[in-house]
Amino acid sequence: MIVCFQPKAQKGKGKAPEKVVHPYSRKAAYLAREEIRLKKKERCENKKKLNRCEKLLWFQEQLDPEKTTYTRKDACDVVERYLRRFDSELEQIELMNGIKGRQGRLHGAREAVIKQTIERERVQYEGIGFEIPDIINAKNLKTFREWNGDLKKLPNIKLRKVSNKDLETKNEKEEKHEEAEDDNEDDEDDLEDEQENVIFL
């Protein structure tokens, strides 16, 4: 009697097919939430980049083509102009709302957003410092001038924080230095007077 043995079928070494997720399962709900979160994060990052780009372009427009270097005081002056960039818009809103007989306040939401933005930026400028493109460093200033607004090149733009506290500290130091120089001059004058008195005696 001849018995034939069939060889065992070898198990496939390929990847197992992915399990189909049930549309109403907890995993499906988790994946949907994760996709929404990632899309929202991407939108926020893009919006953040666009806002930063808009801010940098504003500063680029303010650069004096004749200037090759900027002092800390110059940078503070530019920041002050930046903090007043909404002045004309706020004036227009105030004029429209000042018309007699008008009921309700127009552009109230826009006005509130502007004022909150300015207040937040002012607090930064008077506190830890307001972030601007580094126009004080000559090399970084040159790079910033050559930037064409490309979002991909944003990381190449060096930033630095500027605070009016730094300016006040510098002014105080200059005043103290001037006072010290005046005191030295007074001491020298007194010494000369004493020497003259000795000569005449």
UniProtKB/TrEMBL annotation:
Residue stretches of biased makeup (Acidic residues): 180-201
Compositional bias of kind Basic and acidic residues: 163-179
Source taxon at top rank: Eukaryota
Chain positions covered by the region annotation Disordered: 163-201
GO cellular component terms listed in the entry, alphabetical order: nucleus
Its job: Involved in the biogenesis of the 60S ribosomal subunit in the nucleus.
PANTHER family registered for this protein in UniProt: TRANSLATION MACHINERY-ASSOCIATED PROTEIN 16 (PTHR13349:SF2)
Complex and partners: Associates with pre-60S ribosomal particles.
Family statement: Belongs to the TMA16 family.
The protein, known as: Translation machinery-associated protein 16
Gene source species: Sander lucioperca
UniProt lineage: Eukaryota, Metazoa, Chordata, Craniata, Vertebrata
Gene responsible for this protein: tma16
